[in-house]
Design goal:
binds zinc ion, 8-stranded mixed sheet, about 20% strand, 14 helices, Alpha-Beta Plaits, single chain, alpha/beta, about 40% helix, Aminopeptidase
Length: about 450
């Protein structure tokens, strides 16, 4: 009888597991090429109203493509709409499940050495174990920070890297959209470089600033993408019969003004109110508690190869808009050197046809942080969120190149001049003078 029960259990389980594994079987990825304003507007309407189609990138005049995923059942409808409106498109992946099956996820355990591999993705537990290991390996320099708490009760863990007190801060927020796996990976890479690199510019950057880096700010969503649904974007709070709020539409700055949805089933659902979600509320309180210490704030997303600056609802230039654009463009110039990867620098409103309630707008408007950027990492829609693992290292290397150049250019434009560094130099001059006097 027991044997029979087990047998029945297996029979019941097998179809369920198979169904889970092949959840995206025959889902097709399209790259659409809008050619005029009407095309962009139509695509934006579909994105805002038709939850059948998963927009992997936003319709933006900055880009000549829009990437959209369709289930096998809805493919014909999508193609009909596109053909009816004379929009060109190509199929970039006939069956995205094949790309999902190729992705590797490895576990990191504390008995390993302190380095991660940059040719694989990691689970949340692995990332957190690695952070814990770094704290042991770099006592007094690396410290665990908790930026908040998720709906399911997970800590939003990060690492603070500091070589002394009184320094200005650089804040990096990754993984707020859980399916963008390259984002936590690049944040981890930055941490790794700051702690282990022998490159003089990297070491100076590590020494001169206090770094606050949170690789995964949507931990529940990230776990869900690893365990249940690879393409999950939002958090995991149930809202009626739907689940999840887009955490990058939920910040209390022009909330729900544009580019967000009131439909809980939508992937860009802004939530029942600004800061309705524990993740955004707690993280924003943490950021606010840092007062005016932050000189540079980076929010890391994928994909499209864009560097975006606030604001999401206005193309009007704010006080240091032109400086921010210039610094950003130069940083993207440095990014392109190593592998020729081209990024476009632009304003969020012109880039994504207005989207409000994002973290960078809130940080810029409410906290007046001087330099605030949003990265949209590789690629330009060929693989999108399913960026192949052999692109992880090159992506992360070029992002690090751009970050160092960003700091360098920011200083040239009169930003990020660490007062601590200045005091340090003055102290050394003073010391040298004293030594000279007594010789
Ligand atoms: Zn994103």
């Amino acid at each position: 009888m027991i044997f029979l029960n087990k047998f029945l259990f297996l029979i019941l389980l097998v179809p369920f597991v198979s169904c889970e594994k092949f959840r995206f079987n025959n889902y097709t990825l399209y790259r659409i090429s809008p050619e005029n304003d009407q095309h962009y507007k139509l695509l934006q309407d579909i994105q805002n109203t038709d939850v059948r189609f998963d927009f992997w990138s936003d319709p933006t005049p900055l880009l000549d493509f829009v990437t959209v995923l369709s289930s096998p059942e809805d493919k014909d409808d999508l193609e009909e709409i596109l053909r009816g409106n004379k929009m060109k498109y190509e199929v970039t992946m006939q069956n995205i499940q094949e790309a999902i099956d190729k992705e590797t996820v490895e576990s990191y355990t504390r008995s390993n050495n302190i380095s991660m591999s940059w040719n694989t993705y990691y689970t949340l537990d692995s990332i957190n174990s690695w952070l814990a290991n770094l704290i042991t390996a770099y006592p007094g320099i690396a410290g665990m920070i908790i930026g908040g708490r998720s709906y399911e009760g997970r800590d939003i863990k990060g690492l603070k890297i500091s070589h002394g007190s009184g320094r200005r801060a650089i804040f990096i927020e990754g993984g707020i959209h859980s399916r963008e796996w390259i984002s936590p990976s690049s944040a981890c890479y930055i941490i790794n470089e700051l702690l282990t690199s022998n490159d003089p510019a990297t070491r100076a950057a590590a020494r001169d600033y206090d770094w606050y880096i949170f690789p995964v700010t949507n931990p529940d969503g990230y776990v869900w993408t690893h365990e249940q649904f690879r393409l999950w974007r939002k958090n995991r709070r149930p809202i009626g019969t739907a689940v999840g709020v887009d955490l990058n539409r939920n910040w209390n700055n022009n909330w729900l003004v544009s580019g967000a949805s009131v439909n809980p089933a939508s992937d860009i659902y802004a939530g029942p109110g600004p800061f309705s979600e524990p993740e955004t509320l707690s993280l924003s309180e943490y950021i606010r508690s840092m007062g005016d210490r932050i000189d540079l704030y980076l929010s890391i997303h994928s994909f499209s190869q864009l560097l975006l600056i606030p604001f999401g609802n206005s193309t009007a230039a704010y006080a240091n808009y032109h400086d921010a654009m210039n610094i950003g463009r130069r940083a993207m110039g440095a990014l392109s050197v190593r592998y020729g990867t081209q990024y476009i620098t632009g304003n969020i409103a012109e880039a994504i046809y207005q989207a409000t309630g994002g973290s960078v707008d809130w940080v810029k408007e409410q906290l007046k942080v001087p330099l605030v950027y949003c990265y949209e990492l590789r690629d330009r829609g060929t693989f999108g969120f399913l960026l192949p693992t052999d692109q992880i290292r090159p992506n992360n290397e070029e992002v690090m190149d751009s970050l160092l150049e960003m700091i360098h250019q920011a200083k040239r434009f009169g930003y990020m001049n660490s007062s601590n560094g200045l005091h340090g130099s003055l102290f050394l001059c003073f010391l040298a003078l004293i030594i000279k006097m007594f010789h």
